[in-house]
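S., here's the first fold you wanted:
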Amino acid sequence: MGELVRIVFLVFLLAGPAIGLSAQDFRGGFRAGLTASEVSGDDAGGPDRLGWFAAVFTNRDVGEHSRMQLEVMYTQKGSRVIRDPHNDNNGQEVTALFRVAGDNGVPEPPVDEYRDYRLNLHYVEVPLLFKFDFSPMISLPYADRLTGEIGLSGSTVVGHYEENRGKDITDLMADRQPFYAAELNLIAGLYYPLREGLDFQLRFTQGVTPFRPHQGGSTTWYNRGQYNTVWSFGLSYTFFAR
């Protein structure tokens, strides 16, 4: 948790000049919703782990149509993979997994590639975001009501669980692939107003730094370990919305 405290302090330090120090100029609120996440190298091919998030935030205008926002968020990430090689092709047996043995033409048993794997990651994350209204740039109906956001976040794992074929491998993998102390993430998102102060939100978060090394230990300059990718959607409520 010491690393998280340093991240939060650093974000506040960087955010201070941008969002000002006058408390009466701040607005606050909370966000909550669902997440769909994936981990690079999990062989799943898409967001496969469902979870949820909850956050509190404060923001302040830095322009007529722009704001800086600081959040503290709990979020769930990870991976979920269920793959049966005998039913990978719309329920049809995958004959490529059978090999011919000797000259009698009798197929050997299929290669055992069945996989039932899950990785549950619990994070505390601190995003710093620049939010901007689309109305000065777009005059199309509905689109001119959108608000966008871009930014960065620091995050750290505060809990995790890992399982393979029903067996708890949390401690084993924590020793084999220890988590890094913190991660850096890139964030982009959209808000659409539902009523005053209440918005529907869609957000994409991509890890810029890995959360742990590859199992094999090999790295390249552009792929230094396992990375989180998260889609989240939910509701955002702002008190004292303008």
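And the second, which I think is the more interesting of the pair:
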Amino acid sequence: MNPTVKAELIPSGKLRVGVNLGNFLLVNKDPAGGKPRGIVPDLAQELGRRLGAPVELVTFAGAGETADGAQSGAWDVAFIGAEPQRAEQIAFSPAYLEIPATYLVPAGSPLKSLAEVDRPGVRIAVSARSAYDLYLSRNLKHAQLVRAEGIPASYDLFVAEKLDVLAGLLPRLVTDVERLPGARVLEGKFTAVQQAVGTPKARTQAAAWLREFVADIKASGLVAELIGRHKARGVNVAP
């Protein structure tokens, strides 16, 4: 391996991997207080194996805090949704998997389609600084985003404030809808969050190597295998 790649990825001798604990589809907290489990921790270990370096998981409560770690130097690599705003600080690989995002509406809602949501007066609960929050912030023209810290809190806000819409990842919304009699998940998706591997932007050789790493884990079937192993329903290997 190019020595520059190793120097950029493991400057301390270990691979520090930023992990968003808020993404329940890809990371699960160990109820016994041990290390996180799931697709991302497994991929982090695969990265470390290929680099011949021990792995330290640097955990964050949400995606926004994980992204902030690029500027603060908290991690060498992070598994996080690729977004243009984040790309100002992070060099992203192509996506290794994607997660559809859509809307949930309460019982009796007149909203029937995704296109109808972006109207004046419509209030949308959303997890602050999530990838789909960043997407909606760029693309909505009329509806109002009402933010909460984290996915569970966005659901609680939606219910408590009787908001018009809950934005979220499809696999989570299909469980949320079961808790709300008469609620509906709107058909389709407004975006698909592209989960990628990132490194601080100045580390150009590391970024090039990570692009090859992601291409290989998709082509070899490792990503698909991990999706099945961890029963991550509703996520797909990125095209």
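Why I say that: The domain at 3-97+194-237 is CATH 3.40.190.10 (D-Maltodextrin-Binding Protein; domain 2). The chain is about 35% helix and 25% strand.

Talk tomorrow,
H.
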